[in-house]
C-alpha cells in the first residue's frame, strides 16, 4: 500500500506508460528520465541566477541572431551531456547550435532516436525573473542504425514525434510531456528531488477567455488577425466580452497558463516576418503535440495543421496559433476570408 504522502514519481509513471508504448524497450523511458535529471541541474542554476554571475549575455550571438545568455549555453551543454550519456540518441538539433550535433561514439551510432530542443526558451526574461522553459521533441531516426544520423532524421513532420514535452522553470518547476498517450504533468518536489505526478490526461478547455499575442506588432498583422483581436475586444451589448489579454513573452509560460485555463497563443506572420518568429522543430511541433493530446489545436493561421508541415530546415520558422479548439477555429474563420485564393 503506497503511503499517501508519496505521489507517483516521473520514473514510475513512465514505466507504467511504457507497457502501453508500442516499441520502446525502456529506451524512451531512460531518455525521459535523463531529460529530467538535466532539468533538475538547470533548475538549480536558474534558481540561483540572481546570486551568481550566470545571468546576462554571453557576449556572442546564436544562429537566430539573438544574444546568447550564459544560462542558454549552460542549459544547452547540460542537456546535451545528459542525453548523450544514454547512448540512445544519435544526435540533437538545438536552437543554440547552427548545425545538428551528431553523436559518433559506438553506443550512440546505434541510437534509435533523435531529439530537437530549445534548451532555454524565453531566456531574455531570465534577468527580470520571468518564467522560462526547455522544450523538446523526440523522433525515431529514419537512417540505418550503426551510421551517423543525418539531417533527414530531424526533418520529419510533427506527426512522427514519439514524445515531446517542456519543463517550465516558474513559481514551481514542472515537466509536462506526452508519448501520444495523453498529456501528463509533474511538479518537482525539491525536498526529495523528484518530479511527482500532478495531472494525467490533461484536458484543455474547448473555449477560453485568454488571448496571448504581442500586440506591439498589430500594425503588421494580417487582416484576419486584426479582425480576430477586434472580435475579442468588442464589448457585447448583453455582456462585456469576457476576454483578457495575457502575454508574458515566454512561450512555455504563456502556453502552460492557457493549457490549464483555456486560451489561445498567437505568433502570426507579419509583413516583415511572413514566416512568423517561432521555430517549427523545437518550439511549435512539441507544443502542438502536447496541445492536441490535451484536446487543443495548432495551426499556422492559414488552415495548415502545424504537425503536418514538412520541415525543410532545422531552424525553420512558422506562424503559430495554438490552444483551445474553438478559439483556434475562430481565428481560422477570420483568416480564411483573406486566404490567398
Ligand atoms: P516577442 C522568446 O524569445 C520567444 O522565442 C518565445 O518564448 C516567446 O513566445 C516569443 O519569443 C516572444 O517574442 O517578439 O513577442 O518578444
Protein model, in words:
This protein has 341 residues and is α+β, with helices and mostly antiparallel strands. The chain folds into two domains: 10-199, 2-Layer Sandwich (Fructose-1,6-Bisphosphatase, Chain A, domain 1); 210-336, D-Maltodextrin-Binding Protein, domain 2 (3-Layer(aba) Sandwich). The chain is 28% helix and 22% strand. It has eight helices and 15 strands. It has helices at 10-18, 27-47, 70-84, 106-109, 223-233, 251-261, 280-293, 325-336, and strands at 57-61, 67-69, 89-94, 101-102, 113-121, 132-140, 163-169, 173-178, 183-189, 194-199, 210-212, 244-245, 264-267, 297-299, 320-323. The strands form three sheets. Strands 4-3-5-6-7-8-9-10 form an eight-stranded mixed beta sheet, with helices on both faces. The chain has a five-stranded mixed beta sheet with strand order 12-11-13-15-14, with helices on both faces. The chain is globular and about 65 Å long. The mean pLDDT is 90. Bound molecules: 6-O-phosphono-alpha-D-fructofuranose. 6-O-phosphono-alpha-D-fructofuranose (P6P) binds next to loops.
Q: What descriptors fit this protein?
A:
341 residues, 15 strands, alpha+beta, 2 domains, single chain, Fructose-1,6-Bisphosphatase, Chain A, domain 1, D-Maltodextrin-Binding Protein, domain 2, binds 6-O-phosphono-alpha-D-fructofuranose, globular, 22% strand, 8-stranded mixed β-sheet
Helix content: 25-40%
Q: Note the total helix count.
A: 8
The CATH superfamily of the largest domain is Fructose-1,6-Bisphosphatase, subunit A, domain 1
Order of helices and strands: HHEEHEEHEEEEEEEHEHEHEEH
Count of discrete domains: 2
Amino acid at each position: 500500500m503506497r503511503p499517501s504522502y508519496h505521489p507517483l514519481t516521473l520514473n514510475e509513471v513512465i514505466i507504467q506508460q511504457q507497457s502501453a508504448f508500442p516499441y520502446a524497450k525502456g529506451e524512451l523511458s531512460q531518455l525521459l528520465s535523463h531529460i529530467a535529471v538535466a532539468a533538475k541541474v538547470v533548475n538549480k542554476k536558474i534558481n540561483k541566477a540572481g546570486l551568481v554571475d550566470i545571468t546576462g549575455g554571453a557576449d556572442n550571438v546564436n544562429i537566430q541572431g539573438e544574444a546568447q545568455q550564459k544560462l542558454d549555453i549552460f542549459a544547452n551543454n547540460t542537456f546535451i551531456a545528459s542525453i548523450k550519456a544514454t547512448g540512445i540518441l544519435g544526435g540533437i538539433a538545438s536552437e543554440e547550435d547552427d548545425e545538428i550535433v551528431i553523436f559518433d561514439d559506438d553506443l550512440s551510432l546505434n541510437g534509435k532516436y533523435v531529439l530537437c530542443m530549445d534548451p532555454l526558451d524565453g531566456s531574455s526574461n531570465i534577468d527580470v525573473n520571468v518564467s522560462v522553459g526547455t522544450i523538446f521533441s523526440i523522433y525515431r531516426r529514419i537512417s540505418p542504425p550503426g551510421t551517423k544520423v543525418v539531417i533527414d532524421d530531424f526533418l520529419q513532420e510533427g506527426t512522427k514525434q514519439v514524445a515531446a514535452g517542456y519543463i517550465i522553470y516558474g513559481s514551481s518547476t514542472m515537466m509536462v510531456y506526452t508519448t501520444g498517450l495523453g498529456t501528463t504533468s509533474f511538479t518537482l518536489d525539491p525536498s526529495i528531488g523528484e518530479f511527482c505526478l500532478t495531472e494525467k490526461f490533461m484536458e484543455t478547455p474547448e473555449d477560453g477567455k485568454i488571448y496571448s499575442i504581442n500586440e506591439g506588432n498589430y500594425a503588421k498583422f494580417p487582416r484576419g488577425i486584426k479582425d480576430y483581436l477586434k472580435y475579442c475586444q468588442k464589448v457585447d451589448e448583453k455582456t462585456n466580452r469576457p476576454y483578457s489579454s495575457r502575454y508574458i513573452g515566454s512561450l512555455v509560460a504563456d502556453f502552460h497558463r492557457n493549457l490549464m485555463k483555456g486560451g489561445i497563443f498567437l505568433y502570426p506572420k507579419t509583413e516583415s516576418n511572413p514566416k512568423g518568429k517561432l521555430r517549427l522543430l523545437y518550439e511549435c511541433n512539441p507544443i502542438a503535440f502536447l496541445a492536441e493530446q490535451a484536446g487543443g489545436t495548432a495551426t499556422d493561421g492559414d488552415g495548415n495543421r502545424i504537425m503536418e508541415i514538412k520541415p525543410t530546415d532545422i531552424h525553420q520558422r512558422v506562424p503559430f496559433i495554438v490552444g483551445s479548439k474553438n478559439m483556434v477555429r475562430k481565428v481560422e474563420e477570420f483568416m480564411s476570408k483573406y486566404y490567398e485564393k
